[in-house]
Amino acid sequence: MLRIIRILGIMFSLIVVAIAIYSSVGVVDLPTKSIISSWMMVGLCFSLIFNGISSYLPQKNKAGLLMSGSSVAILILVLMKFSF
Predict the structure, then answer these.
(1) Distance from CA of residue 28 to its chain's centroid?
(2) What is the pLDDT of residues 32-72, one digit of tens each?
(3) Residue 27 has what pLDDT?
């Protein structure tokens, strides 16, 4: 279970990096760039959630729990504020 959570965190991190490279290299107009940055924020939040959980589970590290909790709060703000 812990291995799957770590793999999900790494995959979301790689997806965010790929989206960032695409948006900086590709010719993208402004409304599309806004949508891309919204998806980047969602990917970053999920990456922080899964990496925080994988840090918290084996050692009961409070920093991992704090990272997951704050990223859930940021995810809620992103879903309410940004356009998709």
Answers:
(1) 22
(2) 778 888 888 898 999 999 888 888 888 887 888 898 899 99
(3) 67
Under DSSP, the state recorded for 69 is H
- What spatial distance separates the first Cα and last Cα of the chain, rounded to whole Å? 31
**pTM for this prediction:** 0.81
Helical pair 62-81 and 30-59, crossing angle rounded to 10 deg: 160
The single-letter DSSP state of residue 27 is -
SS3 of residue 55 by DSSP? helix
**CA-based torsion, 1, 54, 66, 74: positive or negative:** negative
Place of tokens 């990917």: 43
- The confidence score (pLDDT) of residue 56 equals 84
Categorise residue 28: left if φ over 0, alpha if ψ from -120 to 50, beta otherwise.
Answer: beta
Tell me the C-alpha distance between 49 and 66, whole Å. Answer: 10
